[in-house]
Amino acid sequence: MNALQKTLAIIALLTLVSQSIRHAYRLWLEPRGSALDKYDQPLKDAIGNATSLDQLLGRYDKVRKEVDEKRKERREAGEAGKQQPYIDESQTEPYESEHALRAAITDWEKQDAEIRELRSYWVVGLALLVLGIVTYRKLSRWFGLTFLIAGFSELIYWTSPTLLGPGTREYDRLLVNKLAFSVASLILLLLVIWMSGIFANKKEQPAQ
């Protein structure tokens, strides 16, 4: 059993250490921006610097009113029989800004949902760890180990990098949460390893 515990502990350690380093790098060290940023519209900077969903919604409300007015004017002109030129809404204002803000709001809401899931399932994983430790010490080592594996699986999965989604890259708010909970999970793992003496050098007792 000790060999299995060591193997599982090493795998969990490697996973948590590597993903914690990855989160820290992306949050603090990864180069950001591009030489082409100076040619982009100022709205992109405003979206990137937004600190709350309300800020984005405030900007969206203003732009949406402009879009509604433009569409109303074109509709009234069409009803009056005036020929209207084709407009690519993805390339002209205020439609372009409206699309960008709508996408940013959608991404923000998805991040909020993922952060709530991360925190909720991390607590579930913590509860499984506590149950596993108690069961391991009081009832059955194998039964307790099962709960410990389930608990650490939850902690590792929900703090792992986001591999799907727009750009396959988390934003700062999500990265901060993942880094904090990943480090907390690593500390818990080290405590369990220490309490269980998994890597302790146990000397064989001499035969009597």
Give your account of this protein's structure.
It is a single chain. Helix content is 72%, strand content 0%. It is mainly α. The chain has one domain. The longest helix has 44 residues, at 95-138. It is elongated and about 90 Å long. The two termini are 25 Å apart.
Number of helices: 6
Biggest β-sheet description? none
What is the CA-CA span between the terminal residues?
25 Å
- What quaternary form is this? single chain
**Estimated radius of gyration:** 26 Å
Q: What structural class do the secondary elements suggest?
A: mainly alpha
Number of domains: 1
Helix content: over 70%
Strand content: under 5%
Mean of all residue-level pLDDT scores: 83
Order of helices and strands: HHHHHH
Number of strands: 0
Broad shape: elongated
Low-confidence stretches: 164-168, 204-208
